[in-house]
């Protein structure tokens, strides 16, 4: 049931006091019963439905997100995750009996899930609502108390979370701490039982070093350059349409967005034309007039992105306006693998297309670089699919459709190597936010 009291603290400012308060609450055992967990999840559902207009307005203020895209990728996404969790939580938490070696019988052995305690969720700005709430669903479902630290680069959404979460959820066990580097640094001086961080690899190293002081386990959901391979024989119209949908969502500011395309063999020229047509079909002749097309989060990222346009040939897009932080959906061709746009995660609406002679060269290109968060391929060849599965390493591998794998709640979501460590969503969130405990019970008789 939703809490309607306006007296709950809007935001907590003293990290030591917040963590001590949550730790004391966790110690009472109140967060452990299934009933408490389900009540939190249902209250979160009420928050997301009752306050959707307010949340959509915040997302528009922060990132110019249009109402349809914001609803689908932020609110509906979090609702799907929590509905799936509510439906399956009893089954996921059920102790699992395991077989015993002959010498120990008679006895029983089982695997149980213990909540960890007080967990910290640090969220980024690009999907500032769902990347705070989806980990929170897992943390609460696993019976923990939780501190949420939203991103200061999405201030309206951060303020909305600080205002609403303590009103709808149990404020004794859920706190929001707003702020930037100073506040996060102060939080990281506290001892947590798990830290779940989504963001970039540089800050991830700071998080992990801070966690090491208390032997706190971490989940690091990071980014990187997710490639798209396109093989001859793939339907290029369908391929281009799906790449465009995945790439330019949230103006390219999506961790699993296709970062660049490797066009294999003779596909590059025709693919470029199809990509330009797909951009026109999706966003019209003037994407700045499409209310669903987002804006770049801040001036720093805008300047970084426009600086990446200096090399290569613009196939479509390139237009930009600093005053509104608009950058058109842009496809770049004739890009050197050493160009600046290929040296960092783009995280914006620029899609370089690079030609490679064959599948061997494409696989080598991927394997010479950091392990990506996702690897995508458009191919009709089962042999190519098998080779990519065998010969490459990435957080996820998807054929024929970028980005959508993260909407399948029973698939683990996470990176490998530079793209992160650990995973969540659905049952994997229960793994992340629980201790998987061994219990042996041998009768004395
Ligand atoms: P960001 O700048 O909002 O930072 C993320 C969080 O780190 C914020 O809460 C911020 O306050 C905190 N932070 C920043 N500097 C800090 C410091 N010095 N010490 C402690 N905390 C600090 O977001 P970002 O990193 O710009 O996000 C973009 C990156 O996140 C991209 O690389 C993207 O690929 C990745 N990302 C990954 C996922 C995923 O699920 N794997 C999702 C979204 C974004």
TrEMBL record:
Biological process according to GO: aldehyde metabolic process
What InterPro entries does the record point to?
Ald_DH/histidinol_DH (IPR016161), Ald_DH_C (IPR016163), Ald_DH_CS_CYS (IPR016160), Ald_DH_CS_GLU (IPR029510), Ald_DH_N (IPR016162), Aldehyde_DH_dom (IPR015590), Aldehyde_DH_NAD(P) (IPR012394)
Domain Aldehyde dehydrogenase: where?
Answer: 6-439
Q: Does the keyword Signal apply?
A: no
Q: Which Pfam families match?
A: Aldedh
Cross-referenced Gene3D superfamilies, in alphabetical order?
Aldehyde Dehydrogenase, Chain A, domain 1, Aldehyde Dehydrogenase, Chain A, domain 2
**SUPFAM superfamilies the record matches:** ALDH-like
Q: Which domain of life is it from?
A: Bacteria
A GO MF term: aldehyde dehydrogenase (NAD+) activity
Report the CDD domains cross-referenced here: ALDH_F3-13-14_CALDH-like
> Could you tell me the keywords of this UniProt record?
NAD, Oxidoreductase
The record places the active site at: 221, 255
Report what the protein is called: Aldehyde dehydrogenase
From which organism does this entry originate? Answer: Streptomyces triculaminicus
